[in-house]
Amino acid sequence: MTTAGDSVIRQGDWTLWTLSADVTGSPPILEATCTTCDDSSGAAEETKQPEVWCLSHAHQTGHTGFRMITTSFLQRVHGKRGLFRDGCTGPKGDA
């Protein structure tokens, strides 16, 4: 079961834990790398710096292929104990 960007891990009918975006720390980190020589822009929190680096690197070297790497942070959250797949709190079929 995956909803609204959260990943839910289950074992049998029990929810063990979920993964959600960690909004308490850094925003996603971006880095561009050249696919020809593996040189990189370095990490940045905004897209402008890696994009400008790509254009500058292409101008200086003639290289034309780049990879944008985005690192997002997740946080594990414990699932609710006793929550079953069908949403009830008792064995399947019990309300």
Count of distinct strands: 6
β-strand percent reads 25-35%
The arrangement of helices and strands along the chain is: EEEEHEE
Derived structural class: alpha+beta
**Whole-Å distance between the termini?**
21 Å
Q: What's the shape?
A: elongated
Would you kindly provide a written description of the structure presented here, covering whatever features stand out?
- The protein is elongated.
- Strand 1 (2-3) and strand 2 (6-11) form a beta hairpin.
- It contains one helix and six strands; from the N terminus they run ββββαββ.
- The protein starts with a strand and ends in a 17-residue tail after the last strand.
- It has a four-stranded antiparallel β-sheet, with no helix packed on it.
- With 95 residues, the protein is α+β, with helices and mostly antiparallel strands.
- The chain is 15% helix and 35% strand.
- It comes from Streptomyces rhizosphaericus.
Question: Helices, strands, pairings?
Answer:
Layout: E1 2-3, E2 6-11, E3 14-21, E4 29-34, H1 48-61, E5 66-71, E6 74-78
Antiparallel strand pairs: 1-2, 2-3, 3-6, 4-5
Summarize the structure in short.
The chain has 95 residues and is an alpha+beta fold.
Question: Can you give keywords for this protein?
Answer:
DUF7848 domain-containing protein; DUF7848; two-stranded antiparallel ribbon; 4-stranded antiparallel β-sheet; alpha+beta; 95 residues
